[in-house]
Amino acid sequence: MSAQKLPYDCLEHITHYASNSQPTLAALSIVSRDLNHLVVHYLYRRVCLKDGDQRCGSSLSSVLNNDTLARRVESLDLDSSLSASVLGPLASALSAMRNLRHIYVRDLNAVVRHDVTVLSVIQTLTNLRSIRILASSSSASRRLLDRLPAMQSITVDLAGNSARRIPELEQLLLRSRETLTSLAISGDYDLSGFLNQESVDDASHRYVWKHVKQLSLHAPPRSPALIRAFPNATWLSIDPGLTDFDFDDKAIVTQRLGLSWWREMRDDDFRYRLPRVLRRCIHLRHLDITLHQEVLVPAVRPPAIRWRHNIHNSPQLNSVFMALNDVKWDGKTLQDLRYVSVSAVKRKPDDYAFSVELNGSDVEVGSLFAAFPRLRAVVLALMETPSLWRRRARTSAGASDAGCSRELLTRGVDVAQFLRDMDDA
After folding, report:
1. Considering the entire predicted model, what is its pTM?
2. Residue 376: DSSP 8-state
3. Beta strand segments in 11-126, E
4. How far apart are CA 40 and CA 153, in angstroms?
5. What InterPro entries does the annotation carry (predicted)?
6. Which of 70, 187, 354, 394 is in Cβ range 3.0-4.6 Å of 348 for a Cys bridge?
7. C-alpha R_g of the chain
8. CA distances from 253 to 185, 227, 235, 249 (A)
């Protein structure tokens, strides 16, 4: 049956199902006029360009020449260097995107330097709620931060020459204290210095973001300031590899914890720190750990070489299992733990040598299900195709736990989102 003969409501369902795939939407738009009419609404809702100036310029021209398309754009991501031929039209394109809710332009500071009126344009975007920005101590960056309204989501990539603190960024955070739900700062930013101002500020309530649920920090502040400022964060992602990071007796109220442990952290330091962090997470449901890429050793290597390779200066998969084993004997720690995921920065190929090494993890994974009664799934995303272990259902009332079963996930799957969907099901 051709697309022209399908009922219109079927075409609507097809379009809605494909709405999260830009390539699929682009293909559907040339099938028929009816599909094109339906697809255009979704196709221009998110404009994401990474292919350079030629494609970027043509897309901006489409928006400029069609006010209807411009009003449909809700998210704009331009992750590419912009030439002078694009910098000019971009300011006009932004003014036409009156329903824009999210913006990320990698060279947005260059746009400001090219045409300062873009600052006034951004102020007119009353629906803007989310921004990703390359922040620095430059005049253009600071003027842009100063003009932004209160945000729901802020992602900050710090430039290499950025200052330890940027007053305009901190003022934006203060303006957003009643609206902010997600904050991510990559880079060595002195957030502690900002948060600890409340000790000398009469209005200490200004430094509390009670609506923030998702928090991602490369250089987290000391735990008292973190807990006080973001008391309701349910997804916390931090890199505690820094020597000055530590937890005191304060509890961390978070349901999902993401930890990135890089090469500069020694393996023995990792096994010491991880249990200390986990013992503070009193309601943790999902533990997500990202390790360095050398977490699997080909099983075909001679034992002597494998033994030398395993004298690590960075954490390994076995270190995760050993640290969790140290925690499980507490009895009161991680009682609500439902999901554990371990990923590598660079995954290994799906070949026999690494598969044999990963197969040796079945016993350790099984012991996690035995140690944590509410654990539902463990995902090891160390190879291109992640492996998932699920808890088997009990065969009868009162019977002992039946262990776990293993399956393979799809390549490229977003493990965190997959587990969130499993938790919501």
Report:
1. 0.67
2. -
3. 46-49, 75-78, 102-105
4. 26
5. LRR_dom_sf
6. 354
7. 25
8. 20, 8, 10, 13
